[in-house]
């Protein structure tokens, strides 16, 4: 969850650094064989995309479970808001809206309808 405190840029920075062509293997011969198989079939660009997609999905799903667990324990709803913002930035609008709604309700319950943080969540939902 801490990485979502740094927003979308932190997540993207981690994903951008993935490059299958820089991978290593215990044996150099294995590395050469694996690289040749990749080059002869889908290519490194496709492997990088597949790895990034899988890591992104895992990362967001794991963060969602952690943020919801934190909110259920009565913790700060900021984790829900940060995660919703990241999901929105990744184009996952329905998932983001679901988390924004949970965040909104927690903030209304905690601070009342007129609180500034409630307005910020409404704004995030609208953008």
Would you kindly provide a written description of the structure presented here, covering whatever features stand out?
It is a single chain. By secondary structure, the protein is an all-alpha fold. The protein has six helices and no strands. The chain has helices spanning 7-16, 28-40, 44-72, 78-89, 93-111, 116-126. The longest helix has 29 residues, at 44-72. 17% of the residues are buried. The mean pLDDT is 85.
Order of helix and strand elements from N to C terminus: HHHHHH
Cα-atom radius of gyration: 19 Å
Overall mean pLDDT: 85
Portion of residues in helices? over 70%
Q: In total, how many beta strands?
A: 0
Task: Give a topology summary.
Elements lengths: L6 H10 L11 H13 L3 H29 L5 H12 L3 H19 L4 H11 L1
Helix pairs in contact: 3-4, 4-5, 5-6
Question: Could you provide a short overview of the structure?
Answer:
This protein is mostly helical.
Keywords:
single chain; 127 residues; mainly alpha
């Amino acid at each position: 969850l801490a990485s979502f405190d740094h927003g979308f840029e932190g997540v993207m920075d981690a994903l951008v650094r993935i490059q299958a062509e820089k991978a290593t293997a215990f044996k150099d011969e294995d590395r050469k064989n694996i690289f040749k198989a990749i080059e002869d079939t889908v290519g490194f660009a496709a492997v990088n995309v597949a790895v990034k997609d899988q890591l992104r999905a895992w990362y967001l799903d794991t963060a969602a479970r952690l943020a919801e667990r934190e909110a259920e324990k009565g913790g700060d709803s900021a984790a829900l808001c940060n995660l919703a913002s990241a999901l929105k930035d990744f184009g996952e609008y329905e998932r983001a809206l679901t988390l924004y709604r949970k965040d909104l309700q927690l903030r209304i319950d905690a601070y009342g309808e007129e609180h500034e943080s409630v307005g910020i969540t409404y704004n995030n939902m609208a953008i």
